[in-house]
Specification:
alpha/beta, 12 helices, 2 domains, Rossmann fold, binds nicotinamide-adenine-dinucleotide, 331 residues
Length: 331
């Protein structure tokens, strides 16, 4: 099948080509993201393969379908950027990578947590300048602290296991209770209790209308002073302007982000010679107790291998009329 692969970086090309060795689909790679201006590139491709910040609203899906596209394959888990109702109406099948290494994201969340807690980002800069002062670098033991996990699915569960290994008390918040999570000696709590007890909050739920800005001014006002917040899930889970206020007042003790609500205008490109016009984002970067990575939590060899193999398998299933194991059913 002819597949148009959008937002294709060098690593996408390498791992997609490797995954396609046996299947032999025709891969056409485009550096550009899928958006209105680049839609023309997709014409004549039965499958279109996109990533987290590509746009797939109703208008874009209509043009894809009229250009001959029958399958939309996401190289990611989250699908908040897809108009699924429009896809269903147009008869466009949508597949995603339901599960790849949950360790990739959970382990990155731990790396972010310990960086912000132990001030590794500041120590790195200091020691390169032969400054070996410790003032301002004090952190705290994770042992005995309370960690709250919002969303105890695949990634949240791995994060919980790691936190239990550190000797933390673990609280969870989820619509569904996972026996595996409770078997760790962790327990579920509502957001009020989490606010009162957590020293660290890590977000691992999907972005939905229900979870949009789940971390807002009201929730922030209920936190223990100095709580650390880690978000490796989706930027829209937090109200960034409220976060800036909570950082300024000291209510929030530190913030580590791998995702940002307006990241589509920033991430996955080199803007180092440009003036970034997003003032809220620039304000965030100005805090010494904030670190940002550019949506790289998934970025391990194991995860990319599985993502590309699953994507190619989904296209093969579609091409050969099999049941789509990773189909996203319409909402
Ligand atoms: P999952 O489906 O296994 O788990 C998500 C959990 O969130 C589920 O247990 C679900 O019940 C829960 N949930 C849903 N609505 C909720 C709500 N209103 N309140 C609390 N919990 C709720 O998904 P996963 O594989 O663990 O991935 C979680 C998220 O991580 C994805 O949706 C995606 O946004 C994000 N992600 C980020 C990266 C990255 O590179 N930064 C990579 C992969 C996934």
């Amino acid at each position: 099948m002819k597949i148009a692969v959008f937002s294709a970086r060098a690593y996408d090309r390498e791992f997609m080509n490797a995954a396609n060795t046996i299947a032999g689909h025709q891969l056409c790679f485009f550096d550009a993201p899928l958006e209105r201006e680049t839609l023309v590139l997709a014409a004549g491709h039965e499958a279109v393969c996109i990533f987290v910040n590509d746009r797939a609203d109703a208008g874009i899906l209509e043009t894809l379908v009229s250009g001959g596209t029958k399958l939309l394959a996401l190289r990611c888990t989250g699908f908040n950027n897809i108009d699924l109702k429009a896809a269903a109406r147009l008869g466009l099948k949508v597949v995603r990578v339901v599960a790849y290494s949950p360790y990739s994201v959970a382990e990155h969340a731990v790396a972010l947590l310990q960086t912000i807690n132990r001030k590794i980002h500041r120590a790195y800069n200091r020691t390169r300048d032969s400054n070996f002062e410790l003032d301002g670098l004090m952190g705290f033991d994770l042992h005995g602290k309370t960690v709250a996990i919002v969303g105890t699915g695949r990634i949240g569960l791995v994060f919980a296991k790691i936190m239990r290994g550190f000797g933390c008390e673990v609280l969870g918040h989820d619509k569904f209770h996972s026996p595996e999570f409770e078997a760790l000696g962790a327990r579920y709590a509502d957001l009020v209790e989490i606010g009162a007890k957590a020293d660290i909050i890590s977000l691992h739920c999907p972005l939905t209308p229900e979870t949009h800005h789940i971390v807002n001014a009201e929730m922030l006002s209920r936190l223990k002073r100095g709580t650390l917040l880690i978000n490796t899930s989706r930027g829209g889970l937090v109200d960034t302007e409220a976060i800036v206020e909570a950082l300024k007042s000291g209510q929030l003790g530190g913030l580590a982000l791998d995702v940002y609500e307006q990241e589509a205008d920033l991430f996955y490109r080199d803007l180092s010679s440009t003036v970034v016009s997003d003032d809220v984002f620039e304000r965030l970067l100005s805090f010494p107790n904030v670190i940002v990575t550019g949506h790289q939590a998934f970025f391990t060899r194991e995860a990319i291998t599985t993502i590309c193999q699953t994507t190619i398998n989904s296209v093969t299933e579609f091409a050969t009329g099999q049941v789509l194991s990773n189909e996203i059913k319409s909402v």
